[in-house]
Amino acid sequence: MRPSQRQPDEMRAVSLERGVVKYAEGSCFVKFGETHVLVTASLEERLPPWLKGQGKGWVTAEYGMLPRATHSRTRREAASGKQGGRTVEIQRLIGRSVRTIVDLQALGERQITIDCDVIQADGGTRTASITGAWVALADCLAWMKTRDMFKTDAKVLRDHVAAVSCGVFRGTAVLDLDYAEDSEADTDANFVMTGSGNIIEVQGTAEKEPFSEEQLLALLALARKGTGKLIELQKMAIG
User: CA separation (Å) from 89 to 35, 52, 118, 212?
Assistant: First the structure.
């Protein structure tokens, strides 16, 4: 039995609330159970120097945890003068995930920055961030479209993207791990998938014993079910 009493293929309660930040072009407050992340999408009329003059845009991401997002206070990374390796890895993952479904040529020479701030952490902060990032990004692009900022009728947002964690906990493949499971899992994996069912990224690690191909396929099946539900929630969120 899972600590949360959920079934192996049962996700935590998920909510996606749009338009929660007044000044951002797009925003979403995403909750995966007790994991809460505030996501904003900001349009900027600038580009990284290495992209200038190429006629296409860029989507990037930043990620951070507030000091009391966890059981004990963690020092702000700004106070230490540098980001930790985990932070850099997660924000690169978020950026890669959302870029795959954006027509950067149609975006024009602009940059959209996705900011993911973890208010409360109980496992799965990166997967919640990616899922909420899509909603914030969709709203940002819709904001641009109403202002005729695209020179083409091409579909700028080409697909949905959502992410979910899976793992092997006490010998059983389970969906959407919370912290109690994540901290004790035999295997921990994150899946990032599109609305069309394609895979953007898979991160899988054997924490104790190596996992089998059969277990990997079981985790993939759970991930497909989980991301399918998340994408349905995304569709409901943006109306």
Answer: 19, 25, 15, 26
pLDDT digit of tens for each residue in the chain (239 aa)? 899 999 999 999 999 999 999 999 999 999 999 999 999 999 999 898 898 889 899 999 999 999 999 999 988 888 888 889 999 999 999 999 999 999 999 999 999 999 999 999 999 999 999 999 999 999 999 999 999 998 777 789 999 999 999 999 999 999 999 999 999 999 999 999 999 999 999 999 998 889 999 999 999 999 999 999 999 999 999 98
Question: Is 125 labelled as part of a ligand binding site?
Answer: yes
**Global pTM?**
0.96
Give domain status of residue 214, yes or no. yes
- Establish if 4 belongs to a structural domain: no
User: Could you tell me the CATH number of the domain that includes residue 139?
Assistant: 3.30.230.70
- C-alpha span between 155 and 170 (Å, rounded): 45
Phi, psi of 132 (to 5 degrees): -70, -30
| CA–CA distances in Å: residue 236 to residues 10, 23, 143, 156, 171 | 20, 23, 18, 20, 35
Copy the structure tokens of residue 93: 């993952």
73 appears as a binding residue in the annotation: no
* Beta-strand relationship, 111-120 and 14-18: unpaired
Check the annotation: does 86 bind a ligand. yes
158 labeled binding residue: no
Per the structure, how many domains does the chain have? 1
